[in-house]
Amino acid sequence: MKHLRCNTTLLIFGILPLLVSGCSFDASRLERRACSPTRPCTSTGETCCAGFCVREDTCGVDGGLFDSVPSEGAPDLDPLVDPDGDGHPSDNDNCPNTANRTQADTDGDGVGDACDCAPGDDGFTFAVVDEASFADPVQFTPLDGANWAVIDEIYRQPESDGVHRAEHSLGPNKEYLARVRFRFGEGGDDGLTQPSQNLEMAGLALRTSDTDFNLGVGYYCGVDFVERRLHIGYTSREAISHGQLFLLSKDESSAPGKLIGQQLLTQTPYTLTFRAVNQNLSCTLEVPGGITYEYHVTDSTFSTGRFALFTVGTSADFEAVKVCAK
Ligand SMILES: [Ca+2]
Ligand SMILES: [Ca+2]
Ligand SMILES: [Ca+2]
After folding, report:
1. Ligand 3 centre from 179 Cα, in Å?
2. Alpha carbon of 126 to ligand 3 centroid (Å)
3. String of DSSP letters for 30-93
4. Which residues contact 185 (CB under 8 A, 6 or more apart)?
5. Distance (Å) from CA 111 to ligand 3 centroid
6. What spacing in Å lies between the alpha carbon of 134 and ligand 2's midpoint?
7. Tens digit of pLDDT for each residue in 123-133?
8. What's the pTM?
9. HEC states along 6-24?
10. How far apart are the CA of 121 and the centre of ligand 3, in A?
11. Which helix (H) or strand (E) holds 241?
12. How do beta strands 163-169 and 314-325 pair?
């Protein structure tokens, strides 16, 4: 295997100094598929470069993956000892099944960023699904039957009309952090309001009951495409009975939602995080370009029963879903 030596560089990543050898650091590259002489790359145009599958034209090129991973301290090991091929034996690897040569662990909880459900929050572990189990209907229930589909690890709601949810049961009275990347698709009739006032909303919900399967009681963290608002609100049984499924907030002062200072676009990736810690709930939207909008409420009676992806009056794609608990 070809080796290229780069100068050792000290980078600051969050508050932790991170020692890497190379010309740049790009965390996303460290999650690429590992390879070895006994486990070659299978995709057309890829080659095994310093233990990772990369495009042939980037191997050894400045800024390519090869330059971003340390060669020192990361020897080729027996695949039985180091199945992810990152140079760290599984017994001493903070993410044994994903190649992460730097062993970056931003929150210092002993679980490497590469397989930490919430890399920036100490103590959260996967509560519901990882990407591999996300498509498992036993673990994740599409309430709308065939209306939900999993295609290339993207959870897709193709129906633009009505309200749609896909849910998973959670234990009560824990702290949760849910994160998803989503894209709005075509808008339609929400089935709740006058056609001229149609909502087009997508987001995450934490419901207060694990038993009232068909009642949407609980909190939602959603983005209103038409009004360009970030909402965190509460849907009560009373609200449902009055047809106000996604319009009321338990904290009335938060009812208008937070105005998003730019036009929202279809087929554009937005990242949404719904965090419930110490009965403080926050909803955070990250838009391309790094701008973040956040909204939060406090509820001393908060508890959870189910997690849901939801859409109202719009089709949408959800991907990279993580639901974490502690
Ligand atoms: Ca390893
Ligand atoms: Ca690893
Ligand atoms: Ca960690």
Report:
1. 16
2. 12
3. GGSPB-BTTB---STTEEEETTEEEEGGGTTSTTSHHHHS--TT-----TTT-TT-SSS-GGG-
4. 158, 160, 266, 267, 314, 315, 316, 317
5. 4
6. 22
7. 888 886 544 44
8. 0.70
9. CCEEEEEECCEEEEEECCC
10. 8
11. helix 237-241
12. unpaired
Closest ligand (CA of 90)? 1
Instruction: Give the 3-state secondary structure of residue 169.
Output: strand
Q: If 0-12 CB within 10 Å is exposed, 13-18 middle and 19+ buried, where does residue 80 land?
A: exposed
Delineate the domains of the chain, giving CATH numbers in brackets. 1-107 (no CATH), 126-325 (2.60.120.560)
Ligand 3 centroid to Cα of residue 103, in Å, is 10
Could you read off the pLDDT of 190-240 as tens digits, one per residue?
887 788 888 899 999 887 766 655 556 788 899 999 989 998 877 766 655
Residues, CB within 5 angstroms of ligand 2 (ion): 84, 86, 93, 95, 100
Q: In angstroms, what is the span from residue 144 Cα to ligand 3's centroid? A: 35
Q: What angle do CA 186, 192, 196 make, to 5 degrees?
A: 65
